[in-house]
């Protein structure tokens, strides 16, 4: 049976995976709260979804890379959609930095850590409590196959995604039996704006490159099932690589990862 939440909240919704998740949900008749920093893109997407699907769309322009992102987002939600709580939350906002850690710009590094880890955790805490209280809801935290293993050249980025992966897996167990579902979406290298922002045109650890459509279609198919796995790797080649990364000794995996990154 198709999963059709009444209201979905998507962060990082102005482009890439976030925008595509919004489109897929709107096709099913789901109302949306779209969160991003770029008002022009948000307004354009909101207008498109209203025209095509007749859904209610609330654009929320917000920089989530700050302390207290979760409570601030709930406050904005209460103002935009009074009396409504999201049935689906997709924590998609985030970015990466490519290159050796000692060459990363300190301010950009701090901003990445704040958005990818602190803000995501704050939002997760804020939206999960009312879900557990009412006994329903779905939370998707966007991690990465990079979270399964260290990646010299993307050291801090994949460390943030390892955090998201482990946090989500633990929450999957914590909310078991409450009626709430949690999963970490772990795409491999995907043809979005990510690598433009990160400063590299290449994928993480030479993984299989997927399209945003492949990733989001796999997510939607998983959402249609009653139970979600603790994490979801959308395609088979990256799924195999992710399993291998968890069992291969680090002292063997690290030189291979470093060599792949140098060749990228």
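^ structure tokens above, recovered residues below v
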């Amino acid at each position: 049976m198709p999963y059709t939440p009444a209201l979905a909240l998507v962060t990082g919704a102005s482009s890439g995976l976030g925008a595509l998740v919004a489109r897929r949900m709107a096709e099913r008749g789901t109302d949306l709260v779209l969160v991003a920093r770029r008002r022009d893109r948000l307004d354009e997407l909101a207008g498109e979804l209203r025209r095509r699907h007749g859904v209610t769309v609330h654009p929320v322009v917000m920089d989530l890379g700050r302390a207290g992102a979760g409570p601030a987002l709930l406050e904005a939600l209460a103002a935009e959609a009074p009396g409504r709580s999201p049935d689906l939350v997709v924590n998609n906002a985030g970015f990466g930095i490519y290159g050796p850690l000692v060459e990363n710009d300190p301010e950009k590094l701090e901003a990445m850590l704040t958005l990818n880890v602190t803000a995501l955790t704050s939002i997760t805490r804020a939206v999960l409590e009312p879900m557990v209280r009412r006994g329903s809801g779905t939370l998707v935290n966007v991690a990465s196959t990079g979270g399964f293993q260290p990646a010299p050249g993307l050291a801090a980025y994949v460390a943030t995604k390892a955090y998201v992966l482990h946090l989500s897996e633990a929450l999957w167990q914590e909310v078991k039996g409450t009626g709430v579902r949690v999963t970490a979406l772990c795409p491999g290298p995907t043809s979005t704006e990510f690598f433009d922002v990160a400063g590299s045109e290449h994928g993480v650890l030479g993984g299989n490159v997927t399209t945003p459509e492949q990733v989001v279609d796999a997510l939607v198919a998983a959402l249609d099932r009653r139970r979600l796995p603790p994490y979801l790797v959308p395609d088979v080649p990256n799924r195999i690589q992710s399993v291998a990364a968890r069992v291969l000794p680090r002292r063997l995996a690290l030189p291979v990862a470093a060599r792949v990154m140098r060749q990228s």
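Residues 194-206 have pLDDT under 50 and may be disordered.
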